[in-house]
Request: fold
Amino acid sequence: MFHPDDLTALGLTLKLAAVSTAVLLVLGTPLAWWLAMTRRRVRPLVDALVSLPLVLPPTVLGFYLLLFLGPDGPLGRLMTAAGGRPLAFTFTGLVIGSVIYSLPFVVQPIRDAFSSVGHRPMEAAATLGASPRDRFFSVAVPLARRGFLTAATLGFAHTLGEFGVVLMIGGNIPGKTQVLSIAIYDHVEALDYARAHVLAGTLLLISFTLLLIVNLVVRRQPGVRT
Amino acid sequence: MSLQLKCRLERPDGAKGQNGFRLDVDLSLPGRGITAVVGPSGCGKTTLLRCVAGLEPRTAGHVLIGDKTWQDDRHFLPPHRRRAGYVFQDGALFPHLDVRGNLAYGRKRSSGKSGEIEEISTLLRLASLLDRDVSGLSGGERQRVALGRALLAGPELLLLDEPLAALDRENRLAIYPYFERIAAETGLPFLYVTHAQDEAARLADHLVLMEDGRARHHGPLAELLTSPDPGLAHGDHAGCVVFARIVGVDDEYHLARLEFPGGTLLVADPGIPEGRKIRVRIHARDVSLALEPAEGSSILNILPARVLELIPDGPSRVLVRLQVGRTIMLAAVTQRSAAALKLRPNQELFAQVKSVALL
Reply:
């Protein structure tokens, strides 16, 4: 059913989504915690920056990232100076792009989950002898688990369908940076609707299944208020 | 051991456009027994507890618990390194853990001198709840779990913030004995915030009266309630607390005889076993005075008393402090009656107690 090249694109897409989601959870959790707890005046500014990818056209984001990561961009120069290569048109470049592109989809559910946990359980844990780190992992994270699940799913599903950013900074190098959505575009351009159908259907199925699982699991969790 | 609490905290302006709030408290409290902190809402009772627990990092001052310094000019021990058990108004149980998980949370993090879960759950009758989800607990059960969880963390001090405010009277009455037993058995000092006068009268050994962020008065309960300070005993709330013991029950009339340091009182039989210590409250408005022991009166409790002091209470009323044996009582009479009876200090007379409230 799958053409070997399409299988490669599918594998690459899943890998990109998995790596990006993992990076997003690691980076997004402290950011979400800070956004949920801080009373500093810069919070709305940071919040707006995090939400920006929601409204910004992906091509705009991709364009700036290309300038930033490319050989003449600040990070590109830094990489070259350090003996490496610029990150544009590499898998790492794709991960960076996806992380920024999907940031709000991961940070916002976790931030909201942390906010709804509130200060009270954390204070109770503190008076019971739990250090800040201890109470973060033993109280805040388990109470926010629903937010984490939603965040991971949305981050993964959103990265799966990424198009504009990838096209700008990843190009369309088969086996290296060609992801599913771009492969679909190529097939449609070439009027190869059969291969486009298979890939589009696969993407639809994966995304739908993921969201369904989340909805079922979240619903069944006891003791967690929405 | 004693508790030295000197806490200053200023909040420039409240969250909902209220005026600024300022806490300025300097207290030295006994190191055991229940100290009730009472006062109108917004007077800073809860904030005081939070300062002691270390939950208000911007507090200035010092907190000394026995020989341990939790806070002074140079040090601020974070809340998880203070051993302050805190029982929040809503219990603040962890919804992701069952009852046993909640109890174990503090136990795991204690230095080891706290009791075992089995021991505490027997004491607080939690054994049958251990595997229950906390969302299914009643208000009273929640607070018992919260208390057990705090005890298992091995506290040196218990802070209770209106722990029974969400319960009805019947449930409150059912929980008081647990507090009394734990205070007696552990010897831990309790700081117990409440706005309910009756609760303080029932539980407290010591009283702190707060107003506008300051501790206006503090002292042993019985003394403070009958203090001659006109700022304290006045109005309808004026009254005394009598520490009594049930010594006998009259089966024919269903009356219990209470012995207190000052005589005996007859009250409707509360169904409490003989020998049990109880507290009763006698409102000043329920005590009248007579120069001779009344005959042909329906009043059962007539006690010989000596006038200590007359405290004017409003334009028409006067509160009379009375020495009844070793107990001090208050009687509220009109200025006119005081003049008619020619009341004066050291006068011997009779206090007629119309009603007695069991606490």
